[in-house]
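Contributing new records

If you add data, match the layout below exactly. Sequence lines come first and carry their own label; structure lines follow with theirs. Keep one chain per record. Anything else will be rejected by the validation script.
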Amino acid sequence: MVRFARLTALLGAVSLLAACGAGSGGPGATAGAASSSSTASGSGGEPIAVVASTNVWGDIAAQIGGSRVTVISLIHDLSQDAHSFEPSGRDELAVSRAKVVIVNGGGYDDFLDQMLHAVSPRPTVVNAVTVASAAVKIDPDNEHIWFDLEAVGAVAQAIERALTQADPAGRADFESAEAEFISGLAPIRQALDRIAQRDRQAPITVTEPLPLYLTAAAGLKNVMPASFSDAVEEGIDVAPSEMAGVLTLFTDHRVRLLVYNEQSTSAQTTQVLAAAKSNGIPVLSLTEIIPAGEHYQQWMAGIVESLGTMLAQRAGP
């Protein structure tokens, strides 16, 4: 259950600084950026202009802000990579006009931190990793906290407070929407608990740390050598001898599932994928952002459902 007791810590993690400048005018305010527009007005007579580094946080902000916000997600397409993203002039303009900016933090989206250095006055900034670190236990080396439901709940609360700071008249709406969002996470958590009851400590592999918060919540044990996952994250290869050891996990049928990040691939991850498939090991392919047409809850629920189904397909080891 998401913990709400450490509100003071959360407030310290959110930069609630007064933000000036015009709000975004609506859809298409930033070329190439996904935008959810609004029709009602914030405290300044316009919707609150919100910019998020990715559509994960952008979607959550849009759900909480409703008709009182306009949200632009800089990274919203599966072809985009946060680690190599180069903002356009229109992206920079959107950030300069934002009242609230949501960064993932933890080194994931440094490009947005750099953009904020050039913005004056500074908008309210919600750093998701900083917020989550103050509220729940996270791995300082794994910034993919949107796969941790407790962390997401804490960030949703911080977003609600940032929006309320920008538009006090919308407080009741924001609080109601945030509570609804949090309640929507409960069925996903329950599904993870069911997997943990049935498959606790089941050995799985991941190509990189992306899903580890989620698989840990499901009680699963990742047996992929950390050296391989770290190398994938760094964009380098492991030694051939290490690679041979990784492949035996599949040829010896020592794992029940491979979780594969389809947005971060290399020749070696492709080898791993082929080894899993050729040895009948189920493969759960994940992305780092929300696919088009879905909301966060739908996306996570679908992933967890697939996780449970695939584990049920292969009993043992």
